[in-house]
Amino acid sequence: MSAAAPVSSRLPVFPWDKLTSYRTTAAAHPDGLVDLSVGTPVDPVPGLIQRELVAAADSPGYPTVWGTPALRDALTGWAGRRLGATGLTHENVLPVVGSKELVAWLPTQLGLGAGDKVAYPRLAYPTYEVGARLCGAEPVAYDDPTELDPAGLRLLWLNSPSNPTGRVLAKEELARIVAWAREHRVLVFSDECYLELGWEAEPVSVLHPDVCGGDHEGLVAVHSLSKRSNLAGYRAAFVVGDAAVLGELLQIRKHGGMMVPAPVQAATVAALGDDTHVAEQRERYARRRTALRAALEAHGFRIEHSEASLYLWATRGEGCWDTVAHLAGLGILVAPGDFYGPAGDRFVRVALTATDERVDAAVKRLS
Ligand SMILES: Cc1ncc(COP(=O)(O)O)c(C=O)c1O
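Above: inputs. Below: predicted complex with pyridoxal-5'-phosphate.
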C-alpha cells in the first residue's frame, strides 16, 4: 500500500524562503538592513498591557476556549463601541489564538472539504488559500465576489482594509456583497484586522448596521490585536458575529484545545479598554507612512490604493523581483507582490513596521 501524500504537498511553497538571498544582499549595506518586508510590529507593547499580563502571571489552571466573562464583556463592548455592531451578547464573540490560526483552520473547523469552494480576493493574504487547501476544498480568487458562481461556495473571505493593497471597501460596496451572499446563503468571514489603521479612508465593519441591517446572520468579523496594540507576540485575536456559527466553532475548538493563555486574555481586556495607545501607535505609523510614501514617489514609484493598513502598494512598472533586487541593493527589503497572487507581479509591498531610525535610513537611501 502506498503512503498517503503528505498534507504539506497540498500547500504552496512557503514564500518568505524565496527572499533569503535578497535579505543577504540588503543586510550587506554598510548602514545595515532596513526590513520593510514582513508587517511585524517593532514598537513596544504598551505599559498598561504588559502590567496586566504580568499581574495574571500566576495562572496555574486551564483557561477556557470561550474566555473569561471579563474578556467576553471586553469583546462585546469594544465591538459595539468601535464597530457599531448592535445587540451583541457573549454568544456573539469567541477569542482565537491570533487570527492566522483561525484563517488557516476555519474551513477545516467548518467541516468543509472536497467539492466545497472557499473564495478570497485576487490579491490577498496567502493564508486564505492555505485554509482551503488544508481541508481539500477548492480555493477560488475573485475580483468582485458577486460575480462568483455561488454553487458549492461555502465560505467567502472579505479583507478590508486589504493586505497587501491597503484598499478599503466602501460601506455601500460591503452592503451589496452582504446582500448577494445572503441571497445565495454563502457564509461571509470579514478579516478586519487593519480596521483601526485607516489613513485616507474610514474602514467600516461588515457588522455595522448600515452594512448588515443590524442582523449578524451569516456574518462574522475577524479582529486582531497584533497590529493595533503591538501584540503580535501575544497571539491575541477574536471573532464577532453570527452566534450559530461561533457556537459551532466553540464546540470544535473546545475539543481541539484551542485556548488563549489566561495572561493574554487579561492583557486583551486591558488593551481593548484603552484607546490612547491605539491613537499613539497610529501617529507613529502615519509619520512613517508620509515619509516613505514621499521618498518612494520621488524615487519613481507609483503608489496604488494604500488608503489604509500597514502597507504601501508600490510599482516602478517592472517585474516585482526586479524591484525587490533594486531595493535590496539599497539595503531595503520589501515583499514582492506575487506573494499575494500572480496579479501582484508588478508591485511590491512596503511595510510601515520599522523604527523611525530605520525609516529615516530608507528615506535617505531613496533620495
Ligand atoms: C489580512 C491578515 N489577516 C490576518 C493576519 C494574521 O494576524 P495575527 O495572526 O497576528 O492576528 C494578518 C497578518 O499579517 C493579515 O495581514
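The longest helix spans residues 276-298.
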